[in-house]
């Protein structure tokens, strides 16, 4: 990991880790062979929990430069822990994932997408074997490898990666392009997959008999009124996860909660201005487009990440009596001028969207005939 960066977060008992963890300002990574310079920063803000004032930050951020000794290849990630051992689970993945991505050097160079997938699954197995009780605890994981002019994003859970893309069709504004898709019961394909695996999908009101359990009283997040659909075992009132994929959560694997990531590849061009990776503490009350509009106001990623986290924190306090842990990684792409001119010519000839879902469903995912192929826009 980058010296002086994520190491600050590895001691969850420290008061600093309980409040905020941040990169040392904006970090610059030249990518001369690819025609741009990357600048990145991250902020992780501990949530406000009135009933648990000493609760540690269960989020973690990752920045690993020159992955596996490969110049110009870098790994970034956001991990949102949950459950009693959520902090330990998020830190475990933060610590183990880089080495696992690099465990097969030839595969990493030949196919970063496959290397990310294998690393997610092996990290999940390692967590199960570790002296951490992950039966009802785990973490989401949204990880991204930057390799030259390609972005490889692997996602499990409801953290998210968003790319800001300049669109001539909409003037000089930036358009938010989601490089991952939240894996929750709100997605029909994911809901069907876990139902076929034996899960009960119910809100808390349905589980407690306050609403008809036979009715899908939610169709999207705006309709759930703070009571989202959750996954429950047919054997009892657990695990209650509001997501359909994660690392850890052993007890939920029997009802379809898997660590198999959805992976996308994006071909970068000078039309792409920056990337935001963030935990759902950001996305709960901020849309992808709103995040892009906010980040675009700043000329460095540190101030952008700080403002995004602060706005998310403010919105939580306006709408709830608490806040979630909130983490954002922001990466600016500063293109050389000749590449900018070339991009403007290309925009007039072809659409800019170049995102591709590259991985076929695993054995676990094939329980649903629609599986991951319904990822919109990919």
TrEMBL record:
<feature type="region of interest" description="Disordered">
    <location>
        <begin position="1"/>
        <end position="26"/>
    </location>
</feature>
<keyword id="KW-0479">Metal-binding</keyword>
<keyword id="KW-0460">Magnesium</keyword>
<keyword id="KW-0464">Manganese</keyword>
<protein>
    <recommendedName>
        <fullName>protein-serine/threonine phosphatase</fullName>
        <ecNumber>3.1.3.16</ecNumber>
    </recommendedName>
</protein>
<dbReference type="InterPro" id="IPR036457">
    <property type="entry name" value="PPM-type-like_dom_sf"/>
</dbReference>
<comment type="similarity">
    <text>Belongs to the PP2C family.</text>
</comment>
<dbReference type="InterPro" id="IPR000222">
    <property type="entry name" value="PP2C_BS"/>
</dbReference>
<dbReference type="GO" id="GO:0004722">
    <property type="term" value="F:protein serine/threonine phosphatase activity"/>
</dbReference>
<dbReference type="InterPro" id="IPR015655">
    <property type="entry name" value="PP2C"/>
</dbReference>
<dbReference type="GO" id="GO:0046872">
    <property type="term" value="F:metal ion binding"/>
</dbReference>
<feature type="domain" description="PPM-type phosphatase">
    <location>
        <begin position="39"/>
        <end position="333"/>
    </location>
</feature>
<keyword id="KW-0904">Protein phosphatase</keyword>
<dbReference type="Pfam" id="PF00481">
    <property type="entry name" value="PP2C"/>
</dbReference>
<dbReference type="InterPro" id="IPR001932">
    <property type="entry name" value="PPM-type_phosphatase-like_dom"/>
</dbReference>
<keyword id="KW-0378">Hydrolase</keyword>
